[in-house]
Write a structure and sequence with these properties.
alpha/beta
């Protein structure tokens, strides 16, 4: 990944979830991009350090902390050309993706929606106003192919599928409004592929070796997709290889 040529020189980037596998890789690649002036990296802790990385803290389930993070970024940077939400949860403690509707659990459903859909939507609420209106900017939230309703042929994973489908709809709805208020802006969801991180580790047994990506590979491909996006593609859902995924 040689850099994001489609954004203005010395662009500002913000990564929410910068301590996770994909988020950390995205942060490292953006910090290495000579065209990037600063990466505002948000997490609860364990952030990569670099002179070009400006850390901030936020809690995905606490809107005031997201509002405060946006205010902190705005005070540092003013406008931000790239915002990436790299947060998500697939399993937690004893909770695992459901194999049957008989396993549906209201607590796990609520947690999945809170982390996978509501949190990113609240980040959009507070960060979309920071996108410049006179040049290309991108807001991208990591989703998952299993969030595609039309692509669901196997069933199972009810909470994760439903929450990611909700995220896709929330971001698409934001994009429709953004097209009126900020025509050059792009607002999308992205599928990173199956990446070797803690999120996917319990479910990698049946994944072909050439279909299991390193975080660095996935992050690089995602940034290539972002670099090629135009405002006409806002509101859509794209895979790591640029394929548009049906909702």
């Amino acid at each position: 990944m040689s850099g994001l040529a489609s954004l203005r020189p010395n662009y500002q980037a913000a990564v929410f979830g910068a301590s996770g596998g994909i988020g950390a890789a995205l942060t490292r690649l953006l910090a290495a991009d000579e065209n990037c002036a600063c990466v505002h990296a948000g997490a609860r802790g364990g952030l990569v350090t670099s002179p070009k990385i400006a850390p901030f803290h936020f809690d995905l389930t606490d809107e005031p902390s997201i509002d405060a993070a946006a205010a902190q970024i705005s005070s540092r940077a003013g406008e931000v050309e790239l915002v990436i939400v790299a947060t998500g949860i697939l399993h937690h403690g004893a909770m695992r993706p459901e194999k049957s509707f008989r396993a549906l659990d209201p607590t796990f459903l609520a947690e999945s929606y809170a982390i996978n859909a509501i949190g990113p939507a609240l980040i959009a609420k507070h960060m979309l106003p920071l996108l410049p209106r006179d040049r290309k900017s991108v807001f991208a939230a990591l989703s998952a192919r299993v969030g595609s309703i039309s692509d669901n042929r196997l069933g199972g994973w009810h909470a994760y599928r439903a929450a990611k489908a909700a995220l896709n709809q929330l971001i698409r709805t934001c994009a429709i409004e953004l097209a009126v208020k900020n025509k050059p802006a792009v607002c999308v969801t992205l599928h990173p592929g199956t990446v070797d991180t803690r999120l996917s580790q319990p479910f990698q047994a049946n994944v072909r070796a050439d279909h299991l990506f390193t975080p660095e590979y996935s992050a690089g491909r995602l940034l290539q997709v972002i670099d090629g996006l135009t405002h006409a593609q806002s509101g859509q859902f794209f895979a790591w290889d640029g394929e548009q995924i049906d909702f």
